[in-house]
Amino acid sequence: MKETKQFTTVEQMETDMKKLKEIADSLNVDTFEGRAASQQPQCKFGSDGVCCTICGMGPCRITPKAPYGICGADEHAIAGRNFLRMAAAGSAAHSDHAREILHVLHETSPEGPYQIKDEAKLIRLAAEWGVKTEGRDIYEVAHEVAEIGLLEFGKPFGTLRNLNRATKERQEVWEKQGIAPRAIDREISTALHMSTIGNTTDPLELVRQAMRVGMADGWGGSMLGTDFTDIIFGTPQARGTSGNLGVLEEDQVNIIVHGHNPCFSEMIVLAADSKEMQDYAKSKGAQGINISGICCTANEVTMRHGVKIVGGFLQQEHAILTGAVEMMCVDVQCVFPSIARIKDCFHTKFVTSSPICRIPGSVYVELSGEDTETAYKKAIELVKDAIDNYQNRDQSKVWIPENKQDAVVGYSTEQIISSLDGVTNSFVASDPTGTYKPALDAIRAGVIRGAVAMVGCNNPKARMDHNHTEIMKGLLANDILIVGSGCASQAAIKSGFMDFDAKEICGEGMKRVCNLVGIPPILHMGACVDISRMMLLVTDMASEWGVNTTDLPVVGCAAEWMSEKAVAIANYVISTGLDVFLGINPPIMGSSKMLEITTEGMRDISGAGFTYNTDPHELVRLMVETIEAKRKALGI
Amino acid sequence: MKKLFDRVWDGTDQMVELAEKALAETIAELGESAPAVMPNTAYNLSCYMAWLGKEIATLGDLKAAFAEAKAMNVHEPRLGNVFEAGKATFLAAETIEACRYAKDPDPYKGEYHGHLTDAEVRALGVPLVTGDIPGFVVIVDPAPSDDAAVELVKGYQSRGIYVFLLGGIIDQLKSKNFAMGIGVRVVPVGPDPWQVCHVITVVHRAAMIFGAVKPGDVEAFDDYSFKRIFAFVNAFAPVRDIVVGCGAGAIAMGFPVITNDEKDMWPVPKSLLIQPDVDAFIDTSLEARDIKIKITNIDIPVAFSSAFEGEIVRKSDMQVDVDGSKFDTFELCRSRDVQDIEDHKIELIGPDFDKFDAGSAIGMGIIVEVGGKDMQTDFEPVFERNFHYFINCIEGAMHTGQRDVLRVRLNKDAYAAGFRAKHFGEVLYAKVKSEYEAIVDKCQVTIITDPDTLAKERAEAKKIYDKRDERLGSLTDESVDIFYNCILCQSFSPSHVCIVTPERLGLCGAVSWLDAKATHQLDPNGPCQVVTKERVIDEKVGLWEDVNENVSKYSHGNLERVSLYSIMVDPMTSCGCFECICGIEPLTQGVVIVNREHGGMTPIGMSFPDMASMTGGGVQTPGFMGHGKQFISSLKFMKTEGGPARIVWMPKDLKELVGAKLNASAKALYGIDDFTDMIADETVTEDPEELLAYITEKGHPVLTMDALV
Predict the structure, then answer these.
(1) Mutate which: B268, B281, B285, B552, vs A, most A CBs within 10 A
(2) For the whole model, what pTM was predicted?
(3) Range A62-233 classified under CATH 1.20.1270.30
(4) Edge-to-edge, what's the strand order for the sheet holding B580-585?
């Protein structure tokens, strides 16, 4: 008997979330739903990007009656500066995260808590950067490479070294258009400087710098972060996991990791895995220790260990509201400060770990890249603490939703190539392994129409995961391959779209590809910082094909974005030559010029631009249209 | 460069246009009520049956259904549409051929094979399951040279791949006098692309017969062909659009296309492969379809492959004729202590083949001695019975008979290539060692042609045969503690489980209780598992709780109860590769039995294909049951319903085959002499009234038995 896969619908997820919200209400504690409602109506000037708070004269808001701010800036300058500052902040977040990883790399040692897991990747990178490896201790190489990497943040001259990974055409465009990023910190500084009182008011130049600071993220901070995270913790390989609130276990010690930088969570996973802690948990009456994750830290550890996914950004409060969580350990970014209030209603311990993310009401246990020696010891203590806390769980307050889905994750570019190797033919001379040719052949023949990178967050402006999942269904039905990262990937996991069986919702082309290659139709490429993987993916595909990245039938989509990082990402994706489709309007709508520049003008700079539409089905239509138009231009 | 999808659509359009024309012409000639049927099949026009769920009987039906086929040809650029167009191409092809057969039921007059009968399809069941046929290739159009054509087909043949040919390659092989036909698994299907439908229908029928896939369940057909039928296509340049259209259909079914055409061709991984080097076609194709060929290296000067199993050596072509009717012959497998065997010793006692004149008859004996700590004397006959098969797989050799009445022929080509007596030893050594490697540690072979030694050894062998018969005679369902199941077929028939007992061999005829025992020993986690028989429910009907539990487990819950001795109460299911099927004849309240080889009608108004389509695929149909030939004379045959005395009709050939044993059983059970004389056959009648009259006249015991229904 053929069994049809039961997917989890957005409605089912909403039912779970509603019930947890009722628990919050009964405990008289706030969650995002209530706060989002209280914020209505949201400020129109802010939403449109025409409120300026940059200097002490402000705030200034642009209306027909007051077309200029006090300094004389118009709506285009204000929206442009705000836009640039968002991109700069996003770039700073990813890049500072990467810097932390580089410091950890610099501290790696054969006996220490942090070691080199992917030597081959380190050696490849060393060769790329001209670092001698022959006859040298691998850690010595690592430390030298780390230093060079760290210099990328503040080097006085030249542009970023990773830019030469791009196609020649892209490098020329970036050079010519003035968006080839110099040192990472320099671009962030420049962005802030340009947009401070009394500087640039030309929206085109503000956007140009937004692209450049975005590039400092995508081809700088994020790319460094991804590469070195792989080197320290291992390059992801395909593995199974499961996701949604139902992964929390009733009879185990539940520890949730949350945030973005995996240095902390890796230690927690390692500690929880130790026999010492497993035994200790059993001695305290638990069946085991269940580590699960939220947001991009979850993505990092699921890609490398198969750690289960509790949910995306908007589910962090609800995870605590199940009453079954002994401890939540967070690092940086996207952490709701309200966790501190909600956890007070339960036995849950809330641990912050980074000087970047200090939240009143949390226990602070600092883990910094410059002092790694005690990291594992601290993790053991925390896990022990969580186990001790298990007995404090109030069973009458526990409600764990049932919904969860299986998924296959871990699609680094290395894994994708290795999967594609499986469909090459060793007797056909023009069919080499180690390339994207099988994927390109499938695209050229029309079996796959194109690819979409589905990335980004959740945002209460849209029903949670609704845009993501509707778009995924629409694209897959049209034989469009999806690569995912961030909370978009988690929407896919929770729905069941990252399981092998998800081929059922695909068109015949994607279904066949999934069957032959042995992949799910949506490939989880990692955390938001790993969108850099996608840039290398399209670059290498374009190079192998002998076309430009702008020619590829590939686009990006952030259907429910909310973080400033998404603005940085969108800017580097566009700079790399791919169109970006947003399902949440950015705060620029109050400026006709910004609207025109971001949707059209950017195309003159990089060959790609934004498309905004809040209707997921319209977005599908627009993306399919773009992809088919690119195919037509290629003659395929 | 013309886009791949556009090529498919142009090809589909061409085929549809041809079909439209053929249909209009044929209807104009014969009228809409004229039958549109392929001969000897219960699955008429299986493309229509499979993909549209249509039963076509007349040209009028075909016309109506063809409109639906045309509607599948939608030119929207998605693979789903292209797959549909590919299937529409096959439907159109089937329409063209249906028109042809409507005008003439034998349109190819032996020049091409055209349509395959159900019997021919069912005969594929066992070799498919055992892996003797690891896959199918459809080769389209002429190879770059006649020699290349021969080379390619021979290459597939030597690997056991079943070859279907379409178009000019057939003429190439003919010009090289290459032997073709079902027997050597190289089938010249037809001269044009549209005869491809005769190959596609084999796949559909396999799905319906062995997989119990229901007509119209498109998804299940796709799944079956993709996962279970290891077929692929080799298409030679220049590949026409109409062939590309067919290719889309093949790929839709999961069959990759390998071509040497580089013009306007788009590679698609594991689906459409461009291989400019024709010499590499075979390796490329097998890898593309994930076919792994188990290779046993045998040191002989000719090819060795299951494809040669059906090869016939005619008198005129004969170099050596081992003739058991005139000389001493025998073959024997016996176990010995390991230390007494010299592994791979091949000894010839007597003159070699070059000492005899071409075409002369001789005597020959073969002794294969095996040893191993898990070897049991019970396995000797199991191994020995396979000598027939091992020797038949030698290119240029033919083997019939068993024990001490053999006929082995070697043709002149094989002799000229250097094949000598010891090479039979090489083959048997290599096969016994590889097939039974878990049991046989050492093996040595003696070939005897010296008349005196032959006479002496044959007498020795006879003593062993007698002992075996004694042992076999004492083996009854009651005398053993365990039965075995057999799920060898599950790769094709996922819901079927055979229960094999001493008195009931597997319905394919290939697995006896001893075979199952050996198979279990060879691979304890393999296809034959122990079934206990401790908790009896009803011994007469053959119901055990243990058996039911086992069947439920191994059929994945598809079956809950199976009786071993009844065709009315929970009869055993079948995969579809049964040798015979029996079914109730209502007027006499007896059963008719028909074997797969019998092409004609039976008194119940159904031919073998019709009756066979009632069961198979693991479905229980009370009143119909598939079984092995040797089961007919079993004391357990239909024991619940009164035993073999229920048999009222059988084809003559079958009657002759099982007659002696059946008579013995009837004598033992009922005290009746010459029982088979009471059973009617096709020479007596195919009419139920006449059948009743005949058995009444003969005083057939069924007339005194209780009604079956």
Answers:
(1) B268
(2) 0.87
(3) yes
(4) B624-627, B580-585, B590-595, B647-649
